[in-house]
From TrEMBL:
Pfam families assigned to the protein according to its UniProt record, in alphabetical order: Meth_synt_2
Keywords carried by this UniProt record: Metal-binding, Methyltransferase, Transferase, Zinc
Protein name stated in the entry: Methionine synthase
Record carries keyword Acyltransferase: no
Required co-factors: Zn(2+)
UniProt organism field: Paraglaciecola aquimarina
NCBIfam families assigned to the protein according to its UniProt record, in alphabetical order: PRK09121.1
Length: 359
């Protein structure tokens, strides 16, 4: 049973039958009966079995909304997690959530984070049951997001390893175990979220990409890395103001990423100050082109989405371009997120038609 699911969905070179398959970078808003809307780290409103059932119901609703909007590569909308990094870490041993320290996350904002107090390990799978439920609900290709090793270490205080690199290698091994189990239940694309790649360039090039490659070691499904300028929260908006008129952060890491074994690179492209020609540095890779700004409630027009995709097509081959959102949409209202998903699909359709007319 497992094998047939895998064969059916994991066609590595051709995950979708048509050009420009759409996807989202990750999270989608949660229903207000599950968690406080329009917030990050929002506390759950249910408990015990009700919470477990509620998360799975929300997963089904989120999937239905993506399918209704015509999104081609669907996800769980991260309905079962409170936060894209900490929920994964909560399932590991060696991390003390009572013993919290304030650290500067991504060199940018203070956050109270748990402490690594001993060797880290994953006693059991974290998201595999959730992924099975998603797999049972849809025949579309599914993508599952995990935090990347570097972003994980940046969301913790380490009292045990006392080395960012050592801890990142340990997390890479743990992520690899989880990824292999996700692949076995039929996940088509496993994505690692590494916003830290836009901040710690030297570490990225010295060991960050190597750790990421350790996390995908032996996988046969598609693999992706999502690098972005973050959710539309104030700390990120303030940080963006300090970056100047041209955001060239990607330039630092693209040459090494281009040579890496990662299949897909997911990037923020719309309304950002990233010079689009930087995409030339990763030519040959598949690119999830962020054509939806998640830092504003303004819903893009299909033509705006199309413009971003057309600009990216100068540097990304058409068969390697996946229209996507810049980042997760968890902090947005459900209506705004739905509007943005529809705009993404409609914009991709415009460009798909143009490509077909020109062949
Ligand atoms: Zn992001």
């Amino acid at each position: 049973m497992k094998t047939s699911t895998l064969e059916k969905h994991s066609v590595k070179s051709n995950i979708c039958t048509h050009l420009l398959p759409t996807a989202t970078a990750g999270s989608l808003p949660k229903p207000s009966w599950l968690a406080e809307p329009e917030a990050l780290w929002s506390p759950w409103k249910l408990q015990g079995q009700e919470l477990i059932d509620g998360k799975h119901d929300a997963l089904r609703v989120s999937l239905q909304e993506q399918q209704h909007a015509g999104i081609d590569i669907v996800s769980d909308g991260e309905q079962t997690r409170q936060h894209f990094v900490t929920t994964f870490i909560e399932h590991l041993t060696g991390v003390d959530f009572e013993n919290r320290k304030t650290v500067k996350i991504r060199d940018r904002y203070d956050a109270s984070v748990p402490t690594v107090v001993g060797p880290v390990s994953r006693p059991k799978s974290v998201f595999v049951e959730d992924a099975k439920i998603l797999r049972q609900q849809t025949d579309k290709p599914i993508k599952w997001a995990l935090p990347g090793p570097m972003t994980m270490i940046d969301t913790l205080f380490d009292e045990h390893y006392k080395s960012r690199e050592k801890l990142a290698w340990e997390f890479a091994k743990i992520l690899n175990q989880e990824a292999k189990e996700l692949q076995a239940v039929g996940v088509d694309i496993i994505q690692f979220d590494e916003p830290a790649f836009n901040v710690f360039f030297d570490e990225v090039n010295e060991w960050g990409i190597a750790c990421l490659e350790r996390a995908i070691q032996g996988l046969e499904c598609e693999t992706a890395v999502h690098i972005c300028y973050g959710y539309g929260i104030q700390a990120n908006t303030d940080w963006k103001k300090t970056l100047g008129s041209q955001w060239r952060q990607y330039e630092e890491t693209f040459p090494k990423l281009q040579k890496s074994n990662i299949d897909i690179i997911s990037l923020e492209c719309h309304n950002s100050h990233v010079p689009i020609e930087l995409l030339e540095l990763i030519r040959g890779k598949k690119v999830m082109v962020g054509a939806i700004d998640v830092a504003t409630n303004n819903i893009e027009t299909p033509e705006e989405v199309a413009n971003t995709l057309r600009a990216a097509l100068k540097y990304v081959d058409a068969d390697k371009l996946y229209p996507c959102t810049n980042c997760g949409m968890a902090p947005l209202s459900r209506d705004v997120a739905k509007g943005k998903l529809n705009a993404l699909r409609a914009g991709a359709e415009i460009v798909r038609r143009e490509l077909l007319e020109n062949t």
